[in-house]
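Recap from last week: sequence in, structure out.
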Amino acid sequence: MAVQGQICSKRNMLYHTGYSEGSRIRAADKTGAGRSRKRGVMLMKRENFGSRLGFLLVSAGCAIGIGNVWRFPYVAGQNGGGVFVLFYLLFLLCMGVPVLTMELAVGRAGRKSAVGAYRALEKPGSKWHVHGWFCILGCYLLMMYYTTVSGWMLSYFVKFATGTFTGMNADQVAGVFGDMLGNPGEMGFWMAVTVVAGFFICSRGLQNGLEKITKWMMAALLLLILVLAGHSLILPGAKEGLSFYLLPDFKRASEVGLGSVIMAAMNQSFFTLSLGIAAMEIFGSYMSEEHTLAGEAVRICGLDTLVALSAGLIIFPACFSFGVQPDAGPQLIFITLPNVFANMAGGRIWCMLFFLFMSAASFSTVIAVFENLLSSCMDNFGWSRRKASVINCIFVLIASLPCVLGYNVWSNLHIIGARDVLDSEDFLVSNLLLPLGSLVYLLFCVSKWGWGYDKYLAEANNGAGLKMPGANWAKIYFRYVLPVLILVILIQGLIG
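Predicted structure tokens:
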């Protein structure tokens, strides 16, 4: 899919297109592409993805995370099953896709990480780039607890592979999770493995590290989904679980409250893509201009939704087959499902594969966000990729320790209300930085004080593929309706 060596002239700017051959070089060099000096810092030629497939898989890997597996199926089941899924897909198209195109547009037009991209596109004297620093803060804060949770997945994969759960009853299975949380050495070790492995991969470069590993990891993840879902669907009682999960039942939805179902679907569709902290913006800066952003955004959302829906195909048939209530959060993953698999023929193998799948899903997010951190340091401080990798690795290792200790040594520490360390960090990212950051990206792209709607639309529709609508109704929706919807999510998250 890569087109190499194609030189074009467009919008009175000189750029080089193609995933493999380097980034667009603007005549004015406002974005720092190519080799130049800016504020005394040597700026190197920007890396690019080696293929379109690499971009799509890395971007989807960033979006696909733990929440897809332990939150989406339960929320869907709790809110009317198929009815929730219908509204989720609707909001994904009318909220998730537009905001995703805006992050990607800022990245592709600016050709830098968040701070530099804002500076390249904002009007002289404006301060939109300040939000770029909050994006970096959000990525660090996300990794301060996400690396620990990713370590849990690796730990459980090894436990099942080595037969730790063999012959255990339900109480003993639950006890394993509690014992792990109470052991800072074990949690710290697996967190450190995640962090060191992630930065090592990213230190090898965009194409030779992140892109190459993600291709294999996403291929393995999709294969594991097919295997695990196929196995769950042939279990006795799987039909009932599948019907509950996917068939629209407005009577069941009305019992929950249709308004509650709609709000839950809107929240899930928005948060599933991790928009607002430049986690996606960075990959826009590595993109070519061969394809429109709407088309790429739909493909990313499609892969993310495929994994989320498939997780339900794994979980609900299995739980219904064994008469187990699918719980939410960590209890579902680390207590409920291990007990379900323990009652299956070959349960050790199936649970080992499940946690391999979970490890791949979580680690794909980790290395994608790590790439954002490295790129930000290289762009803003002029560091080499190796230097950025070493410094960030040490910093994230130290910064992740409070989350590790928050379940044992610091178990009595509550930062925000009654929330422990992990929940407090997650609250700041999920309930504040993500929706607020998405609102900033939206306003920057559609307001006359920011980049401007016409410039955003031109960038989004540059290339072949699905176009964002240019009609007046779309402009009104983006300027006045979409900000209100995001504000609703922000307010609900802060007070709910």
